[in-house]
Amino acid sequence: MTGLHLHNLTFKRQGFFLELSAVLPKGSRTLLVGASGAGKSTLLSLIAGFLMPQRGQILWEGRNIGDVPPQKRPLTLLFQDHNLFPHLSVWNNTALGIKPSLKLNYEENIRVQTILEKVEIYGLKERYPHELSGGERQRVALARSLLRKMPLLLLDEPLGPLGPGLRKEMLGLLSQICEEFHLTLLLTTHQPEEAMNLANHMIFLEEGKIIEKGDPLHLLKTPVHPVLKTYLGNEEGG
User: Fold this and answer.
1) 60 closest CA partner among 103, 13, 106, 2
2) Measuring CA to CA, which residue among 124, 108, 106, 107 is closest to residue 116?
3) Which of 11, 113, 151, 202 has the fewest CB atoms found within 10 Å of its own CB?
């Protein structure tokens, strides 16, 4: 059993009810699509350990990680609000992904430099978060996440602040890095067209339930469930 297995996962809170099972094969890139309130961020928080399910199992490589503390789970989670430290430079905010003490050896410094160059913010390495645009801050957070080299990468609307051109470029970078480091990716979005650029699997979530899942191209071109049809129609209509 390889990859991420969510088995009869159940979570209830304040009128919201999530109940689902899913399999994300190792090395897959899955897009989690749905309207606001569908449960996308909740699901990522459950996988990461920030929320605890009332029932069910979260398995990684056959091991139940449901009781493992968040900091010890084999994953990295990046939210849209990026969580940069205002008193640290771009370089140090990124380097935290390797070593919290920030005492890096030569090879670790090269890794930080390389990832900053890949996301095109190496020239900003001495700046602080308040001196960056929203897109630049998001790229710092993404660079820090990638540096951790955990096998499972969870991204919650990470590209939202970016413009169309940079968004497309970052999707290409994500694809390249996932391939290079053999990462399993789960990325949430309101924009299913991103599946065409990155994902090989797509899950559509509605009110805490999986409505449809499968090949992104097939789901986008020939949706079956009325809710997904309506959602895609709204997307296409702007």
Assistant:
1) 2
2) 124
3) 113
